[in-house]
Amino acid sequence: ISSERAMSEKTEWEDALVKHGIIKKTVKGPTQDEVHLKQMEAEQARDKLDDLTLDDLDEAEDDLDDEILNRYRAKRMAELKQAMSKNKFGEIFQISQQEYKSKVSEASKEGDGVFVFLHLFVFGKLECRLLNQHIASVAKKFKYVKFCKIVGSDCIQNFPDSKCPTILIYYKGDIYKQVEGIQAFGGKRMTAETLTWKLIEWKVIDAKMEKNPFENLNSIRVHKTGRRHDDEDDF
Fold this sequence. Notes:
Number of helices: 8
Order of helices and strands: HHHHEHEHEHEEHEE
Helix content: 40-55%
Largest sheet: 5 strands, mixed
Oligomer: single chain
Shape: elongated
Structural class: alpha/beta
Strand content: 5-15%
């Protein structure tokens, strides 16, 4: 007798016993493959929900269970509140020596840690003006990083103008990065994009740039006035 025929006869025999109340029908549980498939489907559903914004959740209101909908709404609100609490800077702050500790080193300890970018500058120096200009642009985009500036000699007594600009980046109360000059950002050809690129590289900013902005710097001509042009139009 083949195994298939034997299995068929066994099933018929069991059905007959069940029909006459001699035994109870055996309820088979899901197979391991079926359990695995359901787990994968549940994970995929969670992944899709994780990508939904508050507006998306409102649109999907009729398709979701109330408990699940409320849970993800609460999660999105908490994430939004957290983001708003971090994105609170958005400009470059000029500070005094008296404010250095509270506005820089102590400020970098807030919450889980805040990156504080401090520019030691001197008035009238082209490199300092360029850096301040581009810091202001970057600060507007990445409001969770605190950007500050201070006159070098006000910050450190007898700090030489020749060392300006100098950058100190604080994190959790310590100096995380120290840079002298603007060569790291492309020198006098630097842009807000090259500054952003380096801050991403140093993990100060959490972002991605599709193209390396340093590749375009050779097309920029620099004049003594500090005004920059590309090959055809004003830059």
